[in-house]
Specification:
Layout lengths: L36 H23 L6 H8 L3 H7 L3 H26 L3 H18 L1 H9 L6 H12 L16 H20 L10 H13 L1 H4 L22
Helix pairs in contact: 1-2, 1-4, 1-6, 4-5, 4-7, 5-9, 6-8
């Protein structure tokens, strides 16, 4: 493994959907204020990210209206349109931001591991745990992204292509075709999609042993990878930044 300085989950911005859009901590007081306009805009954008996630997860993308998102965020329509061109633009911005947060948490877990196998399993565990800790984001980013249109599907495909980074140091990587990596990533994504679509996002982490085996077996062989099937997740689950947990 290559030592790389990456941020911890605590140092990252909140995952969209981890808070409510009307979070009192981000309230903007009315009347004369010394808060710079750019700070106000950033706060409104942040609240709209959360509001969009919750609204889309609850109503579905097709039925979620700009007015619904604004109401959930406590932000006016003019303020919304000052930040986004429309609902699709807001969805894409929220998706990119949220995926970036998840990516950084996964990358940090991978980089901190002592070897490739541990890093891959750790990255998978983080992915499943973070999605399970913010079900609304999982629904919005995994399921409802399909309803948005070509631009969102392109963003999804670009996101999936980034996962090839986790296989650069895999054993025997140079002996295997690139399409194998694409198939592994696609299989993991499909498994997550089915669980989220079925309303079982809270059980995502239960899939870790099977997904770890599926990921490792082409590189380590069946016998070596099979130990994953008997290894239930032992360490505490990783929550998304700012996610509310029972702990």
């Amino acid at each position: 493994m290559t030592a790389t300085a990456l941020p911890t989950a605590a140092a990252l911005p909140p995952l969209p959907g981890a808070r409510t859009g009307r979070d009192p901590a981000r309230a903007i007081k009315r009347g004369p204020s010394r808060v710079p306009p750019e700070v106000v805009a950033a706060t409104q954008r942040d609240r709209l990210f959360d509001a969009l996630v919750h609204t889309v997860a609850e109503k579905g993308y097709a039925n979620a209206r700009v007015g619904d998102i604004c109401s959930a965020a406590g932000v006016t329509r003019p303020a919304f349109y000052a930040l986004f061109e429309g609902k699709e633009d807001a969805f894409l911005a929220t998706y990119r931001h949220g995926v970036g947060v998840v990516w950084e948490v996964m990358s940090a877990a991978y980089a901190a591991a002592p070897d490739w196998r541990t890093g891959v399993r750790g990255g998978l565990d983080v992915l499943l745990s973070v999605l399970a800790s913010v079900p609304s984001f999982a629904t919005m980013a995994i399921v409802e992204v399909e309803a948005v249109g070509p631009a969102a599907r392109l963003e999804r495909d670009l996101m999936l292509s980034r996962f090839a980074r986790f296989f650069v140091e895999a054993p025997h990587r140079d002996e295997l075709p690139d399409v194998l990596i694409t198939s592994i990533v696609g299989g993991i994504y499909s498994t997550i999609y089915r669980a989220v679509a079925a309303g079982e996002v809270g059980k995502l982490r239960d899939q870790l042993p099977t997904l770890a085996y599926f990921t490792l077996v082409p590189f380590l062989g069946r016998a070596a990878a099979a130990t994953e099937l008997a290894s239930a997740p032992a360490s505490p689950a990783t929550a998304a930044p700012c996610a509310v947990t029972d702990a």
